[in-house]
Design goal:
mainly alpha; globular; 0% strand
Length: 155
């Protein structure tokens, strides 16, 4: 369901507010919210093995940027909801995220910045910081903006 997204131009995407309270609820937004809730409700040992195989397939899909987007957003939600379980595997997750900072699609680059949250920034600052700096030179204004949750100090 997360792949069922509106196909908007990059210009429209730049002008969109992340307003999920809008009346037109999208399948992709509902799916994201449900994955987030499942990650918070169930333990990582239940969720991560099941979903990680799907994430690996999606993240390696070079033809459809939406697949990489969904993979990164899923990693972000798992990282929040199943943090304790995922912590020993951060090296693997980092290897999945790093190449996508240079993805051809701006939304995927934005997702990579969003996924590299505070735990990543603290533990892998040598790898992450140069990529954030590179995104500051991005031509796309929305990608230049580092998402608010990336700057948070939530645990």
């Amino acid at each position: 369901m997360m792949l069922d997204m509106e196909n908007v131009s990059i210009q429209e995407w730049n002008n969109q507010e992340d307003n999920y309270d809008a009346l037109d609820i999208l399948n992709s937004v509902v799916a994201q919210e449900n994955l987030d809730r499942v990650c918070l409700a169930l333990s990582g040992d239940v969720i991560v093995p099941v979903i990680f195989n799907h994430i690996s397939k999606l993240i390696s899909n070079k033809e459809d940027w939406k697949c990489r987007h969904v993979a990164l957003m899923s990693l972000s939600m798992i990282g929040e909801g199943c943090c304790d379980y995922l912590t020993p595997y951060l090296d693997v997750v980092l290897g999945m995220i790093i190449p996508l900072f240079d993805d051809e699609h701006p939304r995927v680059r934005w997702d990579a910045a969003n996924t590299a949250g505070p735990k990543f920034q603290k533990r892998y600052h040598h790898e992450i910081l140069p990529r954030f700096i590179k995104l500051m030179d991005e031509k796309n204004p929305k990608v230049q903006y580092i998402p608010q949750q990336t700057r948070s100090t939530k645990k």
